[in-house]
Design brief:
- By secondary structure, this protein is α/β, with parallel strands linked by helices.
- The protein contains 13 helices and twelve strands.
- The strands form three sheets. The chain has a five-stranded parallel beta sheet with strand order 4-3-5-6-7, with helices on both faces. It has a five-stranded parallel beta sheet with strand order 9-8-10-11-12, with helices on both faces.
- The two termini are 31 Å apart.
- The structure holds 2-deoxy-2-amino glucitol-6-phosphate.
- The site of 2-deoxy-2-amino glucitol-6-phosphate has 15 residues, from helix 4.
- Homodimer.
- It is found in: Cytoplasm.
- Catalyzes the first step in hexosamine metabolism, converting fructose-6P into glucosamine-6P using glutamine as a nitrogen source.
- It is an enzyme of class 2 (transferase).
Length: 369
């Protein structure tokens, strides 16, 4: 078993460390190096068919749904197509508004999640085209969808999803860029700039993995803690949700992710002396507002671990300590921000002596409703 874990003490840690490779493989041949653009040869539909979509539903569960939230912001920003993200167990019982120009994207690591599969089947009954992003060739989702983009993360064994998430986010970046090329909503030079930055992502993930000491210390300090908050705005909020889910799942610490601007509408009442708050402040557009929100929790006694982009000299003045992330385009930052968050949940679980790979009450693949 140790051999299967590649020398790591758990599958989760092994899979966390496989992320540079998983991300690289998922980009793989989908980047045209010469022209710095995206090619998706696996798509069967024509560019003309793809260009007609003016509305997208992204449907998934858990971590895959969280990848979808990043995908929403990116697709909307680069293509101006409105995207709605829905939890599959809710979506399948809704009466969704489909038009001839609606595309559905389902995301599932396993390709066997019952609710996601049911949502896919419902959409197909209504003649909606379904594009799947999945990690398992031959899975039900891969077989039944009209179009498939595989993530090439390799088998994911740990219940807590890590490399599948980062690979899904990469697949969504590639799809969003491709759609922008087809619709002409980004200039060739803009696409090339994103492509350049995307190709630097694996090395940046690797550097975050090498430098885990600070996050390990913070995780250990949460040993006696009952509750922890993740806050962020815009894309940082999407990543907060993933950080919070991961922590709950394997450390059993209660945690909540909150859009920071919403705190004062209720949740701020829970902040008191020494409550740990992980505050993500990586998005330049909303940075000043985010810092004000951090000051609000700090003033109520919170112990704040901030996340900032390297070169940021301000955040340190408002928080207890800062984790610095390598600089990239703001839209690509989520894929880096999530790495220390995964490590935080991993180290918190280890510090409590829990079984990292097999958390209580949970299954790797939820094949029943
Ligand atoms: C993530 O850590 C979870 N264990 C869980 O939320 C998972 O992402 C969800 O069950 C969806 O699985 P799928 O991607 O295989 O459909």
């Amino acid at each position: 078993v140790t051999a299967e874990k590649g020398g790591y003490d758990s599958f989760m840690l092994k899979e966390i460390h496989e992320q540079p490779q998983a991300v690289r493989e998922t980009m793989g041949a989908r980047i045209d190096q010469e022209h710095k653009r995206v090619i998706l040869p696996e798509l069967k539909m024509s560019n003309a068919d793809l260009a007609k979509y003016d509305r997208i539903y992204i449907v998934a569960c858990g971590t895959s749904m969280h990848a979808g939230l990043v995908g929403k912001d990116v697709i909307e920003k680069w293509t101006r197509v409105p995207v709605e993200v829905a939890v599959a167990s809710e979506f399948r019982y809704r009466d969704p508004i489909y038009t001839d120009n609606t595309l559905m994207i389902v995301i599932s690591q396993s390709g066997e999640t019952a609710d996601t599969l049911a949502a896919l089947r419902e959409a197909k009954k209504s003649n909606v085209t379904v594009l799947a992003i999945t990690n398992v060739v031959g899975s039900s989702v891969a077989r039944e969808a009209d179009e498939v983009l595989f993530t090439w993360a390799g088998p994911e064994v740990a219940v807590a999803s890590t490399k599948a998430y980062t690979s899904q986010v990469v697949a969504l970046y590639l799809f969003a860029l491709y759609l922008a090329q087809v619709k002409g909503t980004l200039a060739a030079a803009e696409v090339a700039e994103v492509v350049d930055h995307l190709q630097d992502i694996p090395a940046k993930i690797a550097s975050l993995l090498e430098d885990a000491e600070q996050v390990r210390r913070f995780a250990e300090s949460t040993k006696g803690v009952n509750s922890l908050f993740f806050i962020g705005r815009s894309l940082d909020y999407a990543v907060s949700l993933e950080g919070s889910l991961k922590l709950k799942e394997i450390s059993y610490i209660h945690s909540e992710a909150y859009p920071a601007g919403e705190l004062k509408h209720g949740t701020l009442a829970l902040i008191e002396d020494n409550v740990p708050v992980v505050a993500l402040a990586t998005q330049p557009d909303i940075y000043e507002k985010m810092v004000s929100n951090i000051v609000e929790v700090k003033a109520r006694g919170a112990r704040v671990l901030g996340f900032a982009i390297e070169g940021d000299t301000d955040l340190a003045k408002s928080v207890d300590e800062v984790i610095y992330l390598p600089s990239t385009l703001p839209m690509l930052t989520p894929i880096l921000t999530v790495i220390p968050l995964q490590l935080l949940s991993y180290f918190a679980s280890v510090a409590r002596g829990l079984d990292v790979d097999k958390p209580r009450n949970l299954a790797k693949s939820v094949t029943v409703e």
